[in-house]
Amino acid sequence: MGTKIAMIGAGSVVFCRLLLSDIMATESLRGSEFALMSRTRPKLENMEKFAKKMLRENGIEGEVWSTLDRREAIRDADFVVVMIQVGGVDGFELDYKIPLKYGVDQCVGDTLGPGGIFRALRTVPALLDIARDMEELAKPGAIMLQYSNPMAINCLAIGKASSVDFTGLCHGIQTTLQEISVWLGVPKEEITYTCGGTNHFDWFLTLERNGKDLYTGLRKVFEKPEYYKAEKVRAEMLRHFGYFCTETTGHMSEYVPYFRKNKKAMDLYCDEPGFGGETGAYYAWCRAVADRYASRNMLEHESTKIEGRSIEYCSYIMEAVATGIPFRFMGNVRNDGYITNLPAGCCVEVPVFADDTGLHPAAVGELPEQCAALNRTQINVHLLAAEAALTGDPEHIVHAVALDPLSAAVCTLKEIRDMAFEMLEAQRAWLPQFEGKKIEPKPTVSIPAGTVAVHAPPDPAQAILKRFIKLAEE
Q1: Exactly one of 102, 193, 243, 255 is catalytic; which is it?
Q2: pLDDT (tens digit, 9 = 90+) per residue, 164-214?
Q3: Which of 264, 375, 434, 443 is the most exposed, fewest CB within 10 Å of its CB?
Q4: Domains and CATH numbers, the chain
Q5: Can you tell me the distance from the alpha carbon of 276 to that of 372, in angstroms, rounded to the nearest whole number?
Q6: Is 171 in the active site?
């Protein structure tokens, strides 16, 4: 029997089409059954027609059908590919525009920050429903290939609340490796590397060609004005922390408190257009695409010709499971000792091997302490956001946003609470776990003029210590 592949969120016409093309181009996956599932019909039906046309016009054996019933799509599936966006562009608009009112300026807003946190609150319940359906209905050993952001929070929640075999997939490492190849003038195939960290904040721990370190050359590249200008944030992180990260300047600028906290920092580090740091770059792109294709079938004039595979890991993992020939990739998994100086149970992005016995994450060991410390600032937010999504405790929303490095650099605690309150109220349609619950305001204490502060009496031991210090100074 052929492989059954459930595609959940198949209304994502750009990304679903890409993955379908990759899978159909894989010889060992010929004859697969594709069950396309989405919550609404028009885009789903267009994707079904296009996928059938791809099979037919490329002479590929297989079957495609679509359904609004997630359980039917997952029933007896070998793989479940997840690419959902709960709330769509309308939810994303609120993720971006409400924080901006409070001074939290996001370029992408899908991973950390208020935008990433609320995207997780919307997405985690849906992912756990998918995981439960898999546990009940999919074939034994079925694998979830999870593409929905915010990757780390989503995967942390799955790892905490489900026993399903899963990995979260991103293309940040592949695209960064391509960039490094171009910058250094070294063929990508000749570069060997080790990465470890958290999604969108993964570190190139080693970077070599034929056993020779490439970091010296990379550092020299970013001392050239034209290269520094294009990647100011990553260049600064490399300068000051010693290792290169796997995300663009626009992404990275949101994850730390140094680059977007005021106009001076924005003008200095985030002045390039698009994902070079521009305010709302990703939201603007998503809205433009949504508006452009709202009333037309964007696949209507697309070519069905399959000419090879993309850099996405999905088809290569399926191929490895189908053939038993191992494939190494960077996956997001539960941290069961793979990075020893990051918290157990969090989500880490580490090397993973796929074969006919499943997925096998590899140990990285310890990260350089400064890298681990920066990752832990992200993990604090991941843990609290996942807890909020899983428990429906609105106070944990406040806690997560309060520990977000960018929000904390810009807002007071009261402003953070007010912002979280406004976002929760605006997004209730997509947040059923918070029904009947709200973020409670905290009273503002008015201090009349002339009020004298009441301080607790000093500790006697402290008083003695101060006296001895004064005598020593004299």
Answers
A1: 255
A2: 999 999 999 999 999 999 999 999 999 999 999 999 999 999 999 999 999
A3: 443
A4: 4-88+112-170+306-361 (3.90.1820.10)
A5: 25
A6: yes
